[in-house]
Write a structure and sequence with these properties.
Number of strands of chain B: 13
Strand content of chain A: 5-15%
Radius of gyration of chain A: 18 Å
Oligomer: heterodimer
Strand content of chain B: 5-15%
Strand order of the largest sheet of chain B: 8-7-13-10-11
CATH superfamily of the largest domain in chain B: NADH-ubiquinone oxidoreductase 51kDa subunit
Shape of chain A: elongated
CATH topology of the largest domain in chain A: Glutaredoxin
CATH class of the largest domain in chain B: Alpha Beta
CATH topology of the largest domain in chain B: Rossmann fold
Order of helices and strands of chain A: HHHHEHHEEEHH
Distance between the termini of chain A: 24 Å
Shape of chain B: globular
Strand order of the largest sheet of chain A: 2-1-3-4
Bound molecules: flavin mononucleotide, iron/sulfur cluster, FE2/S2 (inorganic) cluster
Number of helices of chain A: 8
Structural class of chain B: alpha/beta
Number of helices of chain B: 19
Distance between the termini of chain B: 51 Å
CATH class of the largest domain in chain A: Alpha Beta
Low-confidence stretches of chain B: 418-436
Structural class of chain A: alpha+beta
Chain lengths: 164, 436
């Protein structure tokens, strides 16, 4: 269940809207930030606290691509291959990382460290190619060299990175 | 060049710097000296048009909101910014967030709104945090919240984080998303001003639209109406990407020639190459040929005259080496992926477009596929609940119409199955699709 602090935060979120259902997206974000993905148990938990049906929440979770329905690796590399990025090497970047890590789109390395995903435009087209990590940090103006450095960095500093 | 939003003032995002340079004076002026209707009148006089893509006159939109207090009213600020090639609103969050916030406050005052939601795409985590911090600053200074500047006017502003769905930029899908539902667009009418968030009167405006309001109140609507092109006045935040030397966001007056933006502001095409195609306003807008790029001015009227549109002013430049079939596949894939699936023409049609384009790229296309692609596009267009259908159809239809030979090149002359042989022959030379 949610702890006291979280319940307070949920009440605060609810107070911003006319219906408690409207707090669904922010509450799902809370869950995902904490657990990294949204499990069926979490859905049941949210259903209870917001007093909406499990099925409704399942429908919402499956509609929005940023909600992870499966556990991902510790580092989720989301590489943009939309038009502007493709024009500047976004697809090559994706292929390079995919080959380097030995995994395909939406797969996770065996050690559970990296997941890669080809994603649509991230609104960062002028600094293409680019990628996002764990739904949060943008790495812009990427190159193959920078990708190598970044992956090394994550391998060596994983704990520091996950703490922030 | 007039700059209204991205002013060259260091640290303009800081509230003190913003205040020192005239920030929040428009709010003071409006609350103390103007009636709400006078604010709306000034916006009408400015002839400001929405910057979210549809170019709808902002002042007029505000007048659709009912007066009186019998129902709560809402403002939704659209920062979903998910159209490929668009990245301007994030620049406002980063460089001039307080002017946007002040714009929201003025809009709320003009329409008697007590709550505004800023819908920001989930990926913009960094910019959501920036804006949250700026909102807290403004709350602390008494610009947002209860009894603003001691005038008795109260209003709140909240951020609502999206979760990765382009369709939530469509205004009615956006409202459903705030209501905690799947982002399905609603059938219109009823329009949001009558029946919006939770069934109450609601106005939806783009972030850039709102960021223009304080300067309109400070300097008057007439001042604004004289900047750039009279029918689409003001400045636009052009987001230029693709094959240019200096991609980025440039605030320029409407009516600036496109070739000037590419060559002067963006340092020309990379590698000194020739231009093949330019998308003028985000990936859904009909693309332009090199000849069109050489002469067109960047405002909605000028682009409409040549069959395109300003959209979100996201300019994507492609050089002579670009494989347009591959690019169109990327675009078609995007709309296929983002279709919410409510309407059959959009849900099924986007898939057909994508599959046919892929087939052509793999060298397995048939010449009649080109007309079929246009035919499918035209059957999506105008037959759907929301404009995503059109957004999917236009790039396919117009890229093929304007750059047909690029597609023909990938289609093998043989083998052709016997039963379609005649058709192939008769269609090969047709520029336009055959209408039934
Ligand atoms: C599929 C689709 C996506 C859209 N995405 C956005 C968006 O990301 N941002 C935006 O401001 N408007 C977007 N719009 C337009 C909005 O529906 C609406 O017209 C706009 O936010 C109104 O604001 P404005 O009048 O200030 O331009 C989109 C429309 C459609 C059909
Ligand atoms: S046009 Fe497409 S995106 Fe819009 S409502 Fe219909 S299916 Fe959904
Ligand atoms: S195309 Fe990659 S960020 Fe826009």
């Amino acid at each position: 269940m949610f702890n006291q602090e979280e319940l307070k935060e949920i009440e605060n979120l609810k107070s911003r809207y006319e219906t408690s259902q409207s707090a669904l997206l922010p509450v799902l974000w809370m869950v995902q930030e904490k657990e990294g993905w949204i499990s069926n148990d979490s859905i049941a938990k949210v259903a209870k606290v917001l007093d909406i049906s499990y099925e409704h929440i399942l429908g919402v979770v499956t509609f929005y691509t940023m909600f992870n329905k499966k556990k991902t690796g510790k580092i989720h590399l989301q590489i943009c291959t939309n038009v502007s990025c493709t024009l500047r090497g976004g697809y090559e970047l994706f292929k390079y990382i995919s080959e380097k890590l030995g995994i395909n789109n939406k797969e996770t390395t065996e050690d559970g460290m990296f997941t890669i995903e080809e994603v649509e435009c991230l609104g960062s087209c002028a600094t293409a190619p680019m990628l996002q990590v764990n739904n949060k940090d943008y790495y812009e103006n990427m190159s193959i060299e920078k990708a190598d450095e970044l992956i090394e960095h994550f391998k060596n500093h994983i704990n520091e990175h996950l703490k922030q | 060049m007039t700059k209204i939003i991205l002013k060259d003032i260091p640290d303009f995002d800081k509230i003190e710097v913003y205040e020192d340079n005239g920030g929040y004076t428009a709010l003071r002026k409006a609350l103390l000296e103007m009636t709400p209707d006078e604010v709306t009148e000034e916006v009408k006089r400015s002839n400001l048009r929405g910057r979210g893509g549809a170019c709808f006159p902002t002042g007029l939109k505000w007048t659709f909101m009912p007066k009186g207090k019998d129902k709560p009213k809402y403002l939704c600020c659209n920062g979903d910014e998910s159209e490929p090639g668009s990245f301007k609103d994030r620049e406002i969050f980063e460089k001039n967030p307080h002017q946007f916030i002040e714009g929201v406050l003025l809009a709320n005052y003009a329409m008697g709104i007590k709550t505004a939601y800023v819908y920001i795409r989930g990926e913009y985590y960094k910019w959501i945090n920036i804006l949250e911090e700026k909102l807290q600053e403004a709350y602390k200074k008494g610009y947002i919240g209860n009894n603003i500047l001691g005038t008795g006017f109260s209003t709140d502003i909240y951020i609502h984080r999206g979760a990765g769905a382009y369709i939530c930029g469509e205004e009615s899908a956006l409202m459903n998303s705030i209501e905690g539902k799947r982002g399905y667009p609603r059938v219109k009418p009823p329009f949001p001003a009558q029946n919006g968030l939770w069934g109450n009167p609601t106005t939806i405006n783009n972030i850039e639209t709102l960021a223009n309001i304080p300067e309109i109140i400070n300097n008057g609507g007439e001042w604004f109406s004289k900047i750039g092109e009279p029918k689409h006045p003001g400045t636009l935040l052009f987001g230029v990407s693709g094959h240019v030397n200096k991609p980025g966001v440039y605030e320029l007056e409407t009516g600036t020639p496109l070739i000037k933006i590419i060559n002067e502001y963006c340092g020309g095409v990379t590698g000194g190459k020739d231009i093949k195609m330019v998308i003028p306003g985000g990936s859904s807008m009909p693309p332009l040929t090199k000849e069109e790029v050489m002469s067109v001015k960047m405002d909605n009227e000028s682009l409409k005259a040549i069959g395109s549109s300003i959209g979100t002013a996201g300019v994507i430049v492609m050089n002579e080496d670009t494989d347009l079939v591959k690019i169109l596949i990327k675009i078609a894939h995007f709309y296929y992926h983002e279709s919410c699936g409510q309407c059959t023409p959009c849900r099924e049609g986007t898939g057909w477009l994508l599959r046919m384009l892929k087939r052509i790229d793999e060298g397995k296309g048939r010449i009649e596929d080109l007309d079929l692609l246009i035919n499918v596009s035209e059957n999506i267009e105008g037959n759907t609940v929301c404009a995503l259908g059109d957004a999917a159809a236009w790039p396919v239809k117009w890229t093929i119409r304007k750059f047909r030979s690029e597609f023909e090149k990938k289609i093998p002359a043989s083998p052709v199955t016997p039963e379609v042989k005649n058709k192939v022959h008769s269609l090969r030379h047709s520029e336009e699709p055959v209408k039934n």
